[in-house]
Amino acid sequence: MSQDTASQMPLDDGPIVFVVDDDEAVRVALSSLFRSTDVRVETFATAAEFLQRPDPQAPCCLVLDVRLQGSSGLDFQRQLLDANNNVPIIFITGHGDIAMTVKAMKAGAVDFLVKPFRDQDLLDAVSAALRADGKRRESDKQDSEMNACYRTLTPREREVMAYAVKGLMNKQIASEICLSEVTVKIHRGHAMKKMQAKSFADLVRMAEALGIGVKH
Amino acid sequence: MKIITEPKVITGTYSRPLLSFLQLKRLGAIALSSTIFIVDLVSSIHVAIAVLYVAVILISVNIFPKKGVILVSLVCIGLTLIAFVSEHGLDIYDDSFARLLVSLSAIGITTLLALKNKAFSDELQEQVRLLAQTHDAIIVRDMNHIISTWSAGAEALYGWTREQAIGQDFRTLLAPQLMTSWDEMMTSLLETGHWEGEVVEHCRDGACVTVVSRCSLSRGEDNEPKAILATHNDISARKHAIDALKRSEAFLAGAQWLSRTGSIGLKVPSGEMYWSDEARRIFEFDIDEHPMLTSVLNRTHPDDLHLVKEAIKRAYQKESRIKAEYRLLMADGRVKYLQMLAQLMEDGPDDFEYIGALMDVTDAKTSEEALHRSQAELAHVTRVATLGELAASIAHEVNQPLAAVTTNGTAGLRWLNREVPDIGEVRGAIERMVSETNRASEVIRRIRAMSRKSQPQNVALNFIEIINESVALVERELKRNKIVLDLSYLNEVAEVDGDRVQLQQVIINLLMNGMQAMINAKTKNRTLHLSLKNSAMGEVLIEIQDNGPGIAPDQMSKLFEAFYTTKAEGMGMGLSICKSIIEAHGGRIWATSEQGEGATFHLSLPVARKEHL
User: Fold this and answer.
1) How many domains does chain A have?
2) Is residue B13 part of a domain?
3) What is the average pLDDT score of chain B?
4) Does A32 sit within 8 Å of B400, measured CB to CB?
5) Is residue B148 part of a domain?
6) If you measure CA to CA, which chain A residue comes closest to B437?
7) In what order do the strands lie in the sheet with B273-275?
8) What residues make up the domain containing B68?
9) What does the pLDDT read at residue B535?
10) pLDDT recorded at residue A8
11) Which residues of A touch B395 (CB under 8 A)?
């Protein structure tokens, strides 16, 4: 991975902006702009170089030139989506046409800026993208924590939880699965505890997020 | 009056094998004098026999030169004295002595008279001989024009012999035609005694001769006109030569007028000049003007004055051949283009003359210039069209640095507006702005140069720079179309003479052609090879090779024709313009191709002449 030295930032975490543009002057200028607003930035001359960069485990976005040496930015966007890489993309281009813009936006681009653009437009787009990526990462993280909790539940506890979030009474659950009402009560308490649910409503929301209770 | 005109050649008779008439006469003279001597010696007749020696002297006058005659007379005196002494001794009181004196005085007086007469007749003889040797016809006729004398010159000229001519009427024999009337001629002759004029006469064979006739009137003692003496000088040949000269002068004048070529002569060091009519016409000098070198300089275009002065300087340095091309500026502002060539003709060690031809090449120059102009205009139009094709790439080329400038500018401001401004970053941003602005203006400069409509220049150029400039303009376009450009320069410098923009146009055109051929054929791994080298033959060779579909054999011959194109939107001007540009630079352009293997365009241009490097 080759990076422009000017883009090296002392910060090790926090949001990061990736810039892929085959024109060095544009790369250096963008790097300076982002650093002046205290945003971490890394620049790449080609898409291939960017792909070698490991995921930063922090909110990030990609500022991408539509015309790249060797391949087009739109092709690269498709490539990233296929690889399940959800980094938000802001396109910059020397001469955008409507067809190109539509294609990019449909494929999920955050914004499409035509050079020379207003710095504020780019910074706004970038901060919006970083915010969105932060949220995405946060929810991804929550989802994965919930999943971890869920995996600690015994099959019986999962069964009880599934019925409970459907709104069945303990007595009804007991008869459904041929257990005593007391045993159901204990399983339900364990599930609540293991899922770190503060209330029953919380558990219902979690079950929804996990996609539980749709089996019926 | 009769003049004998036969040449009496006294010399030249010695070649005869036997005794000549002259020698016989001399023998006769000796025999006579011997006889007289013997008779004088032997006879006792008291008569001055020695007086008979007079006859010997008279004979010897005709057969001996002056000295011979004197010798003969001395011999005769000697013989007389010998005869006297041997007969009478030294008795001087005898009457025979008186006879001796009579004899001696007779011999002496005869000798003197004979010698005087001889001198006169020799002179006359000489004059007659000289007259006979001229080719002029000498004719004498009486007042009725009856011919009485007819010289050998007349025989030769008219073909009539003396016998045939004498006694004939001059007017019927020769049928003379005078420029004036016959009466006028006779009047003038009678009044002044002379007449001279051109007369056309007829020869025996019917041919006409033109003669100058000089007549003088001969009068008798009674002052009455007796005869007309005429010498007729044949001027037919001279007249023909003059006519031929006049004709060839007319031919020359006509040819000069048609070809707009005049002749001039310049004498050095006097500076005297000679002008043909056409030369005067070209310079527009008046007929009565006598042009000198200063008049030439006054007519010369001020911008070319140094050329003419240089030529004159070279003339004074006696260079054998002087060539010059320069312009004249007429009083009304018209400009004429002249070509001049002068050749040195030696007259003497110090005097020499240049004979020169000068040609008005204005028409040729103007049409040549018009052709150049329209070629340049066509080249410009196609250049602009090519730039149009490159518009998208060029816009990107300008936009990139502009984007960098604005981004650097705003970034710089942000660094400045921070609570603690970062001057290092601001400086970096401003420096980048400057360099990116330069980059943008460089692109614009290139486009401007390509789109400029200017007269083709002819300067020494490094072809490698031309290629680099051309590549800079199409680089983005090549990248956009995924074409790899491979440049190989086998020399570091390749100097050619020519116009930078036009040569760039050729390179751009060939690169774009190769690119489009590969795009249209959807070639994979598109590559353009451009190579340059200096050949051993003093040429710069450039090859541009693509790996497209190549050129079909039937297209090959039409490749460089105007309006021939295989492209849907093509004008068909590109290669034809390339060809005219390269040929105007003294070079060649050709193509080679293996079908399916791509095409190669070859350029060869002469290496720059060193003098204006």
Assistant:
1) 2
2) no
3) 84
4) no
5) yes
6) A25
7) B273-275, B261-268, B352-360, B335-346, B321-329
8) 21-133
9) 85
10) 44
11) 94-95
B594/B484 same-domain check: yes
Q: Phi/psi class of residue B227: alpha, beta or left (left: φ > 0; alpha: ψ in -120 to 50)?
A: beta
CB distance B449 to B501 below 8 Å: yes
Contacts 24+ apart (CB under 8 A), B552-555: B552/B595, B553/B595
ipTM of this predicted complex?
Answer: 0.71
Q: Kindly state the average pLDDT of the residues A141-157.
A: 83
| A30 vs B contacts (CB less than 8 Å) | 407
What value does the mean pLDDT take over residues B43-72?
80
Taking an 8 Å cut-off on Cβ atoms, the answer to whether A119 and B407 are in contact is yes
The rounded Cα B150 to chain-centroid distance in angstroms is 48
Q: In this structure, is residue B1 part of a structural domain? A: no
Q: Across the interface, do B404 and A26 touch by the CB < 8 Å criterion?
A: yes
Burial B559-585 (b: 16+ CB within 10 A, else e): bbeeeebeeeeeeebbbbbbbbbbebb
CATH number for the domain harbouring residue A63: 3.40.50.2300
Per-residue confidence at B119, pLDDT binned at 50, 70, 90? confident
**Cis before B349 (ω within 30):** no
The yes-or-no verdict on residue B14 having pLDDT over 80 is: no
Q: Can you tell me the mean pLDDT for A191-208?
A: 85
B425 vs A contacts (CB less than 8 Å): 32, 35-36
**Tokens matching residue B473:** 């303009």
- Is A186 in the same domain as A81? no
Contact A37 B414 (CB under 8 A): yes
Contact at CB, B432 and A29, closer than 8 angstroms: yes
Range of the domain at A178: 153-210
pLDDT tens per residue across span B529-552: 999 988 888 889 999 999 988 888
Angle at which helix B391-417 crosses helix B463-480, to 10 degrees, equals: 80
- Percentage of residues in chain B with pLDDT exceeding 90? 17
Q: Residue B609 and residue B594: Cα distance in Å, rounded?
A: 36
Amino acid at B503: L
- Is residue A71 very low, low, confident or very high in pLDDT (cuts 50, 70, 90)? low
Q: Are residues A107 and A179 in the same domain?
A: no
- Report how far residue A113's alpha carbon sits from residue A90's, in angstroms, rounded to the nearest whole number: 8
Nearest CA in chain A to B397: A94
Q: A-chain residues within 8 Å CB-CB of B435?
A: 25
Mean pLDDT of all residues in B376-390: 82
Q: What is the CATH number of the domain that holds B157?
A: 3.30.450.20
Residue of A nearest to B480 (CA): A69
Residue of A119, A102, A107 lying closest to A80 (CA atoms): A107
Residues A103 and A37 grouped into a single domain: yes
**A95, B392: Cβ pair inside 8 Å?**
yes
What residues 90-109 of chain A have any CB closer than 8 A to a CB of chain B? Answer: 92, 94-95
> CA B262: distance to chain centroid?
11
Which pLDDT band holds residue A7 (cuts at 50, 70, 90)? very low
* Closest Cα in chain A to B421: A36
Q: How far is B471 from chain A (nearest CA, A)?
A: 17
Residue A70's pLDDT band, with cuts at 50, 70 and 90, is low
Q: Which residue in the set A29, A70, A116 is minimally distant from B411, CB to CB?
A: A29
Instruction: Over range B430-447, report the average pLDDT.
Output: 92
Q: Which of A30, A33, A116 sits opposite B414 (nearest CB)?
A: A33
Question: Using the beta-carbon criterion (under 8 Å), do B412 and A28 form an inter-chain contact?
Answer: no
pLDDT above 70 covers a percentage of chain B that reads 94
On whether residue A36 sits in a domain, the answer given is: yes
Q: Do A94 and B439 touch (CB under 8 A)?
A: no
Q: Smallest CA–CA separation between A16 and chain B, in Å?
A: 17
State whether B254 and B319 are in the same domain.
yes
B463-501 pLDDT, tens per residue?
Answer: 999 999 899 888 888 888 889 999 998 887 888 999 888
Indicate which CATH number applies to the domain containing A205.
1.10.10.10
Residues 144-173 of A with CB under 8 A from B: none
Q: Which residue of A has its CA nearest to B476?
A: A69
d(CA B354, CA B267): 6
Q: What are the pLDDT digits (tens) for B299-326?
A: 899 999 998 889 888 888 888 888 989 9
